Amino acid sequence: MKFIYSSIINSLLESKSSKQNIRLLFRFLLLLGVMVTSYSVVFHFLMAAEGREYSWITGFYWTLVVMTTLGLGDITFAGDLGKAFSILVLLSGVVFLLVLLPFTFIKFFFAPWMAAESRRRTPNELGADTRDHVIITSYDAITAALIEKLRVYKRDYIVIVENLDRATELYNKDVRVAIGNIDDPETYQKMRINQSSLVVATNSDEVNTNIAFTVRELNENVSIITTADSPHSLDILSMAGSSRVLRLTDIMARSFAGWILGGDFRANIIGHFDDLLIAEAPVIDTPLIGKNLIESNLRDRIGVTVVGIWERGKFKIPTPDTVINRNNVLIFAGTEEQISTYNDVFSLYQILRHAGDPVIIIGGGRVGKATSERLRERDIPHIIVEKNPRRVADGDNYVLGDAADLDTLKKAWIEKAPAVLITSHDDALNIYLTKYCRSLRSDVQIISRSNLDRNVSTLHRAGADFVISYPWLGANAIFNFLTKKNVLLLVEGLDIFQVPVPKNLVGLTLAQSRIRWETGCTVIALKKDGGLSINPNPHLPIKEHTEMFLIGTYEAERQFLRTFG
Fold first, then answer.
1. What letter would DSSP give residue 220?
2. Angle, CA of 378, 367 and 459, to the nearest 5°
3. pTM above 0.85, yes or no
């Protein structure tokens, strides 16, 4: 309540118009007081004229009862003069107490408080002690995912919003916002641009260019990361001052190309930390099917350690007794030599089964075409299904038609295709096509695109083996740039991340730490004094000043940070 009163007082005293309103308020209250007193005096004399005596307190009581239209009826006049006076008091009470008083309260008390609350929720300037924060110029699916990541790692941020209603809406969603124009240098000065760690611009290419120019004019050193829809904008944004330009179409295309079953089926390297390589490989048509991890003998025979298994969109932390199924994709860690050995042993089985069978890409838009280019670089045969003739280019790898039509899919060799990539920007269409393709082929690999986080689980239920989330790809790339660490997003919701060993784990062995059981994360490597221990011995104590590499789902990562700090 103390804050509310102070907010009202401050808002009332902040301008000349407010001071004038206060004077009018006092005049109104004075007039109301004079009116009540006068009516009470007249009541006393009129009752005396009728031969009745009442106290002065009773006179005030009667006046307020009549003016507020309560009309208790316990005190009434007998003569016409008294009744006419009662009508006058009643009408003036309706005007002054039931109309003007509420209006006065709203204008001079409630409205200033609401305005003060809005200014508190959506400031137009940050405090002088604000530093190392991220300035975000747009709230969209990408930055919403980024904010979730920043919260987990306790990084400060601010979203600049130009519209007060939009700012209030975001505040109610627990998003930290500030009011300002994203093309105004004064806005960034008020956002403490010289003390910030990063500016994130995910607007249109033209607006991002303006933002980069504006920010760079104020500060030559602050990092600026922008997104680009057009390939022609990459150089322009760089020249405008952007430190890093993200073309999410290419990032998504690389993800599609990296996760498909096709071509030579060799293990696909999806990330690395120094000498530690992270790779994934499908097990379809290999002798690994039906064996558990102990029987597979991968660690002793090849040297790689399986750190995770994907099965129809579900990530599992494997145990020695985990059985490898036909639809599994193994995620393992090892050296370049070890992964090369894996390829020499297992890729031949898959080549014999699927040699020459094309991968189907549904959608010939920007993501579909970019994915086609990545597959062409790997010499993986593929066919693009597109119903818009203007998107169909010359070549024999296009099928013109609706992917929801069975005849169209048959022309694209749906009976033999090892994988179907659904790249549309429409989530509802992607869910429909995922379900349709799964009903046609229970054994085909389906990778679908998601443009909204809430549709990821729906796509998995529809039959997608993997869902590539547009927001999380962008958010993870921005977060990696911010932290300067390789936090690798394998697929939606699954990260490999690097953290210093928490103090409460120093001296314990991995087996004693119970990290996997308490958080769901798996330690895949330890780094100490520049030396990297891949697949560390679980019975050796963890030393101080060690970097730890872990793999886990997004929730497992959050649980690790909550549990161990």
1. S
2. 100
3. no
